[in-house]
């Protein structure tokens, strides 16, 4: 039995990057909402127990987004929807509100608010049965407020008078009270980074960092490393980008220095993913310690593995002695992450302490004091605990503070007091899940995503040699590519995990790759428009053309019957989690006669004032796979140009804008002939970047008409 047992907690904070470079709004709100709950709570709880030592780990992309909220005023689409007066919400916005503003644990969080529970019961559990018309303006406003109130953690609720007063009020909120909630959120967010910097500099915690955009670093270095653990699984075309791995390590540490004032000596690799090549990369960048999962260590040692002797001290790879590797106790980590939430806090803590002491009792006295690494997500478990985990965490920290035989420690403190661990001759390549990488590579969807990523990177490398490209554009292109290398997009592909946001993450991944091409002023490949997850074509609200039309092209939306036979696409921006907070397009009408394609765009609320900064670009793909485009710019007058392979650029002679855009383009200039099937979608371009697309996913499919079209589509 050993006389002292060291326990080191590593709480990992991470959110993927929720926008493309240079966009002014995040697509999803989770950085903001986790900041006011778990990020703030965990720091304030540590202040209550100054003798507790631990590691708090931030991913680089989470730090970047925190900085953007605080220093640049960046917000998110759900913030915008909260800000909008409830009386002014349209049907799509109401649907989005009712679908997504219950995104919190119903049992532990919604139950605390009687009005919130009442609204949930009225809405029901089936998204398809949501009826926006059944809710009054006051009910919708209360939902806007209660969702944002429910996300405040125990610390903000206890400390902030305004928050507690609004919780006590319960219902009947005003617009000014709603804005007060949002102001309180930003005030709490502003406290997060200084709080952890203070805890680090006073020696209570050690701040560590995850490589910049949370990539599976071994796969970025060489995707064929996946074959080490799963040799029989299919693999994508080989992806090798060791320079990108260097970027992710360097950029994250640089950001920690700039934003937190901390020179982080340790790193938690994304998903605990390591390989000999990845460890060498960390060592080359003077990273003092990293961590992974116990099964990776077990597979590295092989038949000689003895859990009690081997797990509870650091190791280093023989070829990289500069970097120590700690391995997490999977059982203890998962108990906190998944089990203890369902149990009484006192009983859960007693069980944890007993298990720690049992490890110490089994340890031989002639060995170094054990260090038990408890490493887990520091943000998501707590909403499933009663009181957001306050009772459990306070009892846990109190018990560890009072225990004479247990000492909490950070990796750097342990290495200073006890020293480095022994050498590993070989290191298995794997992650904290099954000691392999199968979650992120090896299934059809993940492999297709890797192939898209690899092709885009090859294009970017080739185009980087173009001296005419500005540094700013190249920087944007590389930033988007590095974001696309993050693990989160690949997590949701395949059959292992699913969420209501799967399609949103798929879209964000492909948006990053499209942004690479846009930054280079190149046309993105058509397959980047095709979802990798499922088939979302049914979500597009499009009524196909029913008759031939010959509208007047005057830009006036004043004669309905001119366009009555046209196809109608309606922008329903509220059907996903990523609501369209800036609205440029409300409706697109597509019609034709035997010689012309007619297009009419009914602008959204934000289009008219900003139209001179925007370009509308219709992308048309013919039966030969070739792309034709119609580009429309709005200066003193409308200028529209058709571009095709055979005819080059031809001006569109009939185009006009007053309160809508109308234009007529000859099928001949589009190189389309009678009976040809073609697809079309509309992009809104700002400063050469695509800022919105309609439809969001698959293009609309039509056919060039012949003389029998109206007979085949005759309606009364």
Automatic annotation (TrEMBL):
Protein's UniProt keywords contain Hydrolase: yes
Q: Which Gene3D superfamilies match?
A: Glycoside hydrolase 38, N terminal domain
Query: What terms describe the molecular function in GO for this protein?
Result: hydrolase activity
Annotated InterPro entries: GH57_Enzymes, Glyco_hydro/deAcase_b/a-brl, Glyco_hydro_38_N_sf, Glyco_hydro_57_N
Q: Which SUPFAM superfamilies match?
A: Glycoside hydrolase/deacetylase
Q: Does the keyword Hydrolase apply?
A: yes
Q: Name one GO biological process term.
A: carbohydrate metabolic process
Domain Glycoside hydrolase family 57 N-terminal: start-end pairs: 9-420
Q: From what superkingdom does this record's organism come?
A: Bacteria
The family classification in the record reads: Belongs to the glycosyl hydrolase 57 family.
Protein's recorded name: Glycoside hydrolase
Native species of this protein? Answer: Persicimonas caeni
């Amino acid at each position: 039995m050993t006389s002292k047992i060291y326990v080191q907690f590593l709480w990992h904070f991470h959110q993927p990057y929720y926008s493309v470079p240079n966009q002014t709004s995040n697509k999803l709100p989770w950085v903001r909402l986790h900041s006011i709950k778990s990020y703030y709570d965990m720091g304030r709880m540590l202040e209550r127990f100054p003798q507790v030592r631990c590691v708090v780990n931030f991913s680089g992309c989470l730090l970047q987004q925190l900085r953007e909220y605080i220093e640049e005023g960046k917000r998110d689409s759900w913030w915008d929807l909260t800000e909008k007066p409830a009386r002014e919400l349209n049907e799509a916005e109401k649907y989005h509100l009712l679908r997504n503003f219950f995104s919190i644990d119903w049992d532990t969080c919604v139950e605390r608010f009687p009005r919130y529970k009442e609204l949930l019961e009225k809405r029901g559990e089936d998204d398809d049965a949501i009826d926006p018309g059944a809710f009054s303006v006051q009910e919708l406003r209360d939902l806007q407020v209660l969702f944002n109130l429910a996300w405040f953690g125990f610390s903000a609720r206890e400390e902030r008078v305004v928050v507690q007063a609004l919780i006590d009020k319960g219902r009947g909120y005003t617009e000014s009270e709603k804005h007060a909630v949002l102001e309180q959120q930003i005030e709490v967010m502003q406290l997060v980074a200084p709080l952890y910097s203070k805890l680090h500099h006073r020696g209570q915690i050690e701040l560590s960092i995850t490589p910049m955009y949370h990539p599976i670093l071994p796969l970025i270095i060489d995707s064929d490393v996946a074959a080490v653990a799963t040799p029989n699984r299919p693999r994508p075309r080989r992806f090798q980008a060791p320079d990108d791995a260097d970027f992710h390590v360097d950029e994250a540490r640089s950001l920690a220095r700039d934003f937190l004032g901390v020179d982080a000596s340790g790193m938690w690799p994304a998903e605990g993913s390591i390989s000999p090549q990845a460890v060498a990369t960390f060592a080359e960048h003077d990273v003092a310690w990293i961590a992974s999962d116990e099964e990776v260590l077990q597979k590295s040692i092989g038949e000689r593995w003895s859990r009690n002797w081997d797990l509870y001290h650091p190791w280093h790879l023989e070829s990289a002695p500069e970097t120590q590797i700690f391995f997490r106790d999977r059982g203890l980590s998962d108990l906190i992450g998944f089990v203890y939430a369902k149990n009484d806090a006192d009983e859960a803590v007693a069980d944890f302490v007993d298990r720690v002491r049992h490890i110490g009792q089994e340890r031989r006295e002639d060995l170094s004091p054990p260090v038990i690494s408890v490493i887990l997500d520091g943000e998501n478990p707590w909403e499933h605990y009663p009181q957001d985990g306050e009772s459990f965490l306070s009892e846990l920290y109190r018990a560890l503070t009072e225990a004479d035989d247990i000492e909490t420690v950070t990796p750097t403190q342990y290495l200073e007091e006890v020293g480095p661990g022994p050498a590993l001759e070989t290191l298995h390549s794997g992650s904290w899940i099954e000691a392999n990488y199968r979650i992120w590579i090896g299934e059809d969807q993940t492999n297709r995503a890797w192939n898209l990523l690899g092709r885009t990177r090859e294009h970017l490398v080739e185009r980087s040699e173009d001296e005419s490209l500005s540094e700013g554009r190249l920087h944007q292109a590389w930033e988007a590519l590095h974001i696309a290398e993050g693990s989160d997009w690949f997590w949701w592909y395949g059959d292992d995990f699913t969420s209501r946001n799967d399609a949103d993450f798929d879209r964000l991944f492909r948006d990053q790759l499209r942004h690479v091409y846009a930054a280079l002023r190149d046309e993105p490949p058509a397959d980047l428009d095709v979802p990798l997850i499922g088939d979302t074509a049914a979500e597009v609200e499009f009524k196909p053309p029913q008759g031939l039309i010959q509208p007047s092209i005057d830009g006036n939306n004043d004669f309905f019957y001119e366009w009555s036979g046209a196809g109608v696409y309606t922008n329903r921006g509220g059907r996903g989690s990523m609501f369209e907070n800036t609205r440029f397009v409300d409706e697109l009408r597509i019609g034709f006669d035997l010689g012309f394609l007619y297009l009419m765009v009914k602008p959204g609320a934000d289009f008219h004032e900003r139209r001179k900064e925007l370009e509308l670009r219709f992308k048309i793909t013919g039966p030969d796979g070739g792309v034709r485009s119609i580009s429309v710019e709005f200066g003193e007058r409308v200028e529209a140009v058709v571009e095709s392979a055979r005819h080059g650029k031809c001006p569109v002679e009939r185009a006009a804008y007053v309160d809508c855009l109308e234009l007529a383009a000859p099928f001949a200039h589009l190189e389309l002939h009678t009976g040809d099937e073609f697809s079309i979608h509309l992009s809104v371009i700002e400063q050469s970047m695509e800022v919105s697309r309609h439809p969001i996913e698959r293009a609309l499919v039509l056919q060039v008409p012949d003389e029998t079209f109206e007979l085949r589509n005759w309606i009364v």
